[in-house]
Amino acid sequence: xxxxxxxxxxxxxxxxxxxxxxxxxxxxxxxxxxxxxxxxxxxxxxxxxxxxxxxxxxxxxxxxxxxxxxxxxxxxxxxxxxxxxxxxxxxxxxxxxxxxxxxxxxxxxxxxxxxxxxxxxxxxxxxxxxxxxxxxxxxxxxxxxxxxxxxxxxxxxxxxxxxxxxxxxxxxxxxxxxxxxxxxxxxxxxxxxxxxxxxxxxxxxxxxxxxxxxxxxxxxxxxxxxxxxxxxxxxxxxxxxxxxxxxxxxxxxxxxxxxxxxxxxxxxxxxxxxxxxxxxxxxxxxxxxxxxxxxxxxxxxxxxxxxxxxxxxxxxxxxxxxxxxxxxxxxxxxxxxxxxxxxxxxxxxxxx
Length: 352
Hints:
The protein is α/β, with parallel strands linked by helices. The protein is built from 15 helices and twelve strands.
């Protein structure tokens, strides 16, 4: 192995904040990195939807063949299977003698939804991974028990080229302005109740995410007056954060989350974070000084209403949260330095 790692990232996720961001940041810290996109082999239209959902079909088989071929030809020091849902036990096992096989998943393959089809190949292949980084602490022991010999926590991040304070003027200011914003997926927890109650309390609430799923959830919560817009990404996502007075953050029960990537993106944009209260969050930001927290619908509404109406207090907390986030090495470059150091250590250990 050369002093500089060569890494092949096999892509199974879709969002640009995942593998493309890792690819860019790793190259920028001096790791030679190339990306292999499994989605390129599953076609278009209904055929793609079916294969991506079932993880079966000619495109899935071809993705496995082509990844194995790329590893045999290029012999990267490390092959990172990001989410790894396309790649079978046989493929991961065959790569083992050729490259150090490691993985990462931002969702929770061991949680309440572990039996859904997207985790089928990953869970079957885990004993043949050489190492794995996980998003949440509870997964460390679970991945070790599943047969992965080396597992460490790697928390999420903000992207410094995208998540930074922005002054919105003119049309942008009008387009993105609101009292409360939540940008994320719908889930049958307290998020619909919180947002509905905030709207009924007179606050202007906006939701951005998967349209039809959100509309169904809001219908059940009788929250008919809340505007729901499409999922945001890139500059639009960052502008929406900067345009909101309060950025709400709910944590997935499906993923057993105690934090999420938004708790770094929102403060990095200089915005005010109102998140569910968890032990992890209390360690990331001081309550009432660097962020605010809630544990009930009533507390969410009370705090949202207070900080919407008190500009000085809201700005003071947002500024302190920004300073804490920026000074605490929560950017993607810092996380990738940790990833590379961990993997190099694992490789040394594996060589004995």
